[in-house]
Amino acid sequence: MARSALDEMSATGAFERTASTFRNIISRDPGSRFPVESGRYHLYISYACPWASRCLAYLKIKGLDQAIDFTSVKPIWERTKDIDEHMGWVFASSSTKEPGADPDPVNGAKSIRELYELASTNYSGKYTVPVLWDKKLKTVVNNESSEIIRMFNSEFNDIAGNAALDLYPSHLQSQINETNDWIYNGINNGVYRCGFAKKQKPYEEAVQELYEALDKCEEILSKQRYLCGDQVTEADIRLFVTLIRFDEVYAVHFKCNKKLLREYPNLFNYTKDIFQIPGMSSTVNMEHIKKHYYGSHPTINPFGIIPQGPNIDYSSPHDREKFSK
Ligand SMILES: N[C@@H](CCC(=O)N[C@@H](CS)C(=O)NCC(=O)O)C(=O)O
């Protein structure tokens, strides 16, 4: 099985993401294998990674900081072991070396790979973040961000600081699922399909799908504040993590330059709107984001040069409140 996203290639030269492996669920039911318990679980992330960042976003905006602690790895992939060539996420050796990156406070691991090896002796998948870790059973609960955010939304409400916020309300669930579907294919995973394609045709197909989906978002957001109406939902958080990386990274590194985010008035203002939800800005570490992408994919950017611009200020005023009056 592929050990890194850089190897996930079909015969046609298209990027094909493999599925996550650990799919357990934390539940409010006290009899479950992974019951809700304050302090029991740890979220391992990289600030660079959009999938991990959506979990961190939930942790912050649902007010789960007291219940679930988290650690970010260093932004640039390094050798994870001396005995082979694998490059991946590693922890900082001290908290002072790289702001935002810390040593592993739970297991003392040197790499994310080590966590997977602690959890399973025959794991053969990729060593991805996010990892939701159970300190009690010393294992990975789940490494699939789309499932982790659902748990954070609904299962921890007895101990969440912001239990009233429901990002997956029952009356919008089918609309959210349908929206997630085309946004995942066209945009969230779409930018990777553009960037990791090894042949012209799959690149062009991915670009076309990406811009059709972005145009569709622009159209929806010209009429309403959020993707599914007048309340923020899971679909918005999932879209945001890609949009916030778009002009700073994907436009250049993944060749998504047909149109920039800041050329879409509604999408651009919308990105600022989501960024300004209390707690969200702390989940965006642009230094880690830029260092990671430009520094960890030598086949795409062999010299690891990090472009200087464009340094967009997403905390500047936006016009989205016009829809909520
Ligand atoms: N399905 C996973 C995907 C996570 C993922 O692809 N993470 C990337 C970082 S953005 C990773 O850790 N890649 C490590 C590698 O490719 O070796 C999720 O959404 O949780």
Shape: globular
What is the H-and-E element order?
EHEEEHEEHHHHHHH
Q: What ligand species are in this complex?
A: glutathione
Strand fraction: 5-15%
**Strands of the biggest beta sheet: in what spatial order?**
2-1-5-6
Helical stretch count? 9
Main beta sheet strand tally, sense and closure: 4 strands, mixed
Which residues form runs of ≥5 with pLDDT under 50? none
Distance between the termini: 52 Å
Report the oligomer: single chain
Q: What name goes with the CATH superfamily of the largest domain? A: Glutaredoxin
- How many structurally independent domains? 2
Could you say which structural class the secondary elements and strand pairing correspond to? alpha+beta
Helical amount: 25-40%
CATH topology of the largest domain: Glutaredoxin
The top level CATH class name of the largest domain: Alpha Beta
Mean pLDDT: 95
Radius of gyration: 19 Å
| CATH architectural type of the largest domain | 3-Layer(aba) Sandwich
| Total beta strand runs | 6
GO molecular function, one term: glutathione transferase activity
Organism: Capsicum baccatum
Pfam families: GST_C_2, GST_N_2
Protein name: GST C-terminal domain-containing protein
What brief labels describe this structure?
single chain, 325 residues, alpha+beta, Glutaredoxin, Glutathione S-transferase Yfyf (Class Pi), Chain A, domain 2, 2 domains, four-stranded mixed β-sheet, two-stranded antiparallel ribbon, 9 helices, 6 strands, 36% helix, 6% strand, globular, binds glutathione, Glutathione_S-Trfase_N
